[in-house]
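FAQ

Q: What does a record look like?
A: Structure on top, sequence underneath. For example:
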């Protein structure tokens, strides 16, 4: 839609922390996102609509210009690469860590490890940088089940409190990256709609807590 900016939001935990931040920036969806089955929402800000997507799809929408901006976890950007995207703002929300984890007390025995993860590129880079031969097994969810069932030795997953790992008999090993949600912008959109996008970025940046830590 000419003159309309589209901001793609990541559903779930990130959305729950994004909506209060947008509200502080004066941006509210025209209807309650949680109680609606719609995926596209008008907002109270003229010329801005909101999409609600899975995090894995947000960089794709923004990269192809189907959305002008997006809110997405750094984990997705590390996994998918940031080609075609600017990453001007760290929103400081949905903080967590990308970590390796293994069954409590696990020690490597051979020269290879089997690693189950949905973050295959992150995992490949991590183990290659350490000179560890890793067989990477792609999963789409419930990574913490893989070692218990003998599918892998290790996992690479998101860790927040560590409760999910502990509940499944796993312990965190190495931190690969700290993660928070980022605002990303399509590079061509930024050129074509420079003024409204920079105004929107400034409004969102002004709504971030001064110490860089989201409430
Ligand atoms: P926890 O049990 O608190 O360590 O949370 C771990 C699980 O919650 C992970 O397996 C993720 O699926 C999910 N999770 C926690 N924090 C985030 C986040 N910031 N972004 C996406 N998923 C998260």
């Amino acid at each position: 839609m000419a003159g309309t900016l589209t901001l793609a939001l990541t559903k779930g935990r990130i959305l729950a922390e994004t909506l209060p931040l947008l509200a502080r920036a004066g941006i509210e969806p025209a209807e309650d996102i949680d109680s609606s089955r719609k995926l596209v929402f008008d907002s109270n800000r003229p010329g801005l609509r909101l999409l609600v997507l899975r995090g894995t799809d947000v960089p794709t929408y923004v990269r192809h210009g189907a959305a002008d901006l997006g809110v997405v976890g750094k984990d997705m950007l590390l996994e998918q690469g940031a080609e075609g995207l600017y990453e001007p703002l760290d929103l400081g929300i949905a903080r967590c860590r990308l970590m390796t984890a293994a069954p409590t007390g696990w020690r490597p025995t051979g020269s290879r490890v089997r690693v189950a993860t949905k973050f295959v590129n992150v995992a490949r880079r991590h183990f290659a940088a350490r000179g560890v031969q890793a067989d990477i097994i792609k999963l789409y969810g419930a990574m913490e089940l893989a070692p218990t069932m003998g599918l892998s030795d290790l996992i690479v997953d998101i860790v927040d409190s560590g409760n999910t790992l502990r509940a499944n008999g796993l312990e965190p090993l190495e931190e690969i990256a700290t993660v928070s949600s980022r605002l990303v912008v399509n590079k061509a959109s930024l050129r074509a709609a420079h003024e409204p996008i920079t105004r929107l970025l400034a409004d969102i940046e002004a709504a971030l807590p001064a110490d860089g830590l989201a409430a």
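Q: Is there anything notable about this one?
A: The first strand starts at residue 5 and ends at 10.
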